[in-house]
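Can anyone check this?
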Amino acid sequence: MHKIFLTACLAAPLTALAQDQAAPATPDAKPTTSAKPKQAAPVVPSVTVAGERPTNRIDRQVYDVKSDISSTNGTAADALNNVPSVAVDPDGTVTLRGSTNVQILVDGKPSAMLQGDNRGATLQAMNADDIESVEVINNPGAQFGNEAGGGPILNLVMRRNRKPGGFANVNANAGYAGRYNSAASGSYNEGPWGFQGGVNVRHDGRNSTAIVSRDRLDPATGAFVHSSQTSSGAGLNDMGGVNGTVSYNLDQNDTLTASANYMGRGNDQRGIDHYVNGATAVFPATDYVRTTARDGDAKNFSWGGRYDHKGALPNETLKIDLRVSASENDSNSAYANDYAAGGFPSTRANQRNDSSTHIVDFTGDYERPLAGGSLKAGYKVATNKNNFDTLYTDINPLTSVAMVNPARSNRFDLEETVVALYGSYQLKLNDRWGALAGLRTEYTDMDIHQITSGVEAKNSYTNLIPSFFATYKATETANMRFAYARRIRRPSANDLNPYVVYRDEFNVSSGNPMLKPTKTDSFEVGYETKFGALETNLRGYYRKDTDAIVDYRTFIANNVLLTTRQNGEGSHSSGLEFTLSGKLTPSLTLNSSGNLARSQQTTQDDSGALVTRSANSLSGRVRLNYAYSAATQVQMALQMQGKTLSGQGYRSPNHTFNLSVRQAVTPRLSLVGTVTDLFKTNKMETVIDSATLRETSTRRFDGRVFYLGLSYRLGGPASAADNHNEQRFGPPQGPGPGGPGRGPSEG
């Protein structure tokens, strides 16, 4: 996946291999009468230049993240946090323009490790330095499927080096409270062969504290009863990965590529929760402490093969791609409840969770010129298998005898098969106008197996998904963009599983097998231009969801809150997004973005009444990069996330400030220091206000986490600065109206 090969051990010879080799001079065919000595014809090395500065395409925006100072010790979550209108919280929840319905692809393909509850941990373990660029696809076209959410797409384009010779890079970083990470990566290309790969280790995590203040309605008295929960969690986990890619050029037109990836991490955590429940008309007050000790492992792996063919026509290509990926997670939690009030005996319990996701994705894409434009067509056949097994046992504190608790144990399987065909046509209408139109048809078949209760269910449906894009070249430096796309969001396995899953003493969750897929229609208009040295992008958008899947909360026992999902009556959002980037002075570079949004949701309250909630929010980030000298760079980044709606409540605004410094010690050796959340302001606060529940939950994470490390490069360019060019959010202007753009295989 990450396109990096384990060649750190070849570091010594790589520098020599990377040097340009001059070919011997060829004598002139005819003698010369000039007295001047003969000069050999200049030799043009056959070097394929990779890593061009990304450009916008007709259906997406592309952001260069590899030049970020903190990429040498940051994670994929850190890299995404530098992309306009994208936010990743410490739990790994990703939002784009305030929506959590976001697909994350790797080189245009879905991966099991970036789906479901596994996504956050994977983003925190993946190295930012492995990512070349991030493609933001707010209105995905016909070539993109609707897996893992079906909403807008963040495509991680991984680094690829096609330069002849060898190159390697080694990073080592130490951080606060025992944190560390290290990575080695490299590539070697000669003749028809290319090898890339890497290895990385990380010991990291985010300790947290939380306070929950809850007032629930006592139906017997009609009064609200207060309760509270204070929590602390700690645990740094070991993570490691290895990946490699081999490519072989059969001839000038045909290439075979094989890749493999493995990533593992621990699930260790220690937690203490203090619960205080007020007395109701039926239940006495309670005061108790729950301690949790969790351990386990997560394993993610993938492999794949790809065939690329260049046809006889200009820009005629055929890509056939097979990707197999899996994510397997297991954890065991030991709980102990000790009561100080309420007259209850102490209790002990264990909860074991085993889950896995396996994806097989087989796609083909064909592109050729046709009638002055470009025709693209393709297919997808994909299977997605999800398995969940939860075993909860109550343990007698006196005899240590364990008994299965059937109300908190369940096994659930979901098998999903998708078959899709798509076609699109891109045409440059004239010197100013270009257009791209597409249509995708998807057939979905789902088999649901609730093994514990012996319930079997089946569902299948077909969707037609249109899309349209247009560009208009207003001036030599200004473009306008127009987009429309329809998407569907299928319920995930967790959304559909009806069994109640224990979270803690206050909270349980379950899915809803009656959920329908959400249909989303999105519209966008954009304007791109330059003001002096500053590049600007202004985009207005509107998104409407039909049968939106939202959280629904209700009490099922004394102060035990069940969170499930339901199809809301509908929701919509609109906003104005902007980016501004460029050099303010020769030494100071600005990258800024913002999103002024309004969202509205209509859902059923716990009383059964329809309730409409709305929110106005301003999100954005400002990043300044100051080149104190040729060897010293300082980067400051302020990130702000506005208010976002969530079913019966909302998440409060949040902001953080990060600082990074890079000091070149030698042309190949750099010292890098980073401080995340310098002012310790990062928190997650959710507020629920319904007919029967008023709750505020505030969770804070380790702030002011410091990393200091070294980055050393072997082979390739003589200076690290050559690989870390001027930093920017907004990419340069893309190709002219209707101009073709090519990226990784998409199916």
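Reply from J.R.: I decoded it. Residues 61-723 form a domain with the Maltoporin; Chain A fold (CATH 2.40.170.20).
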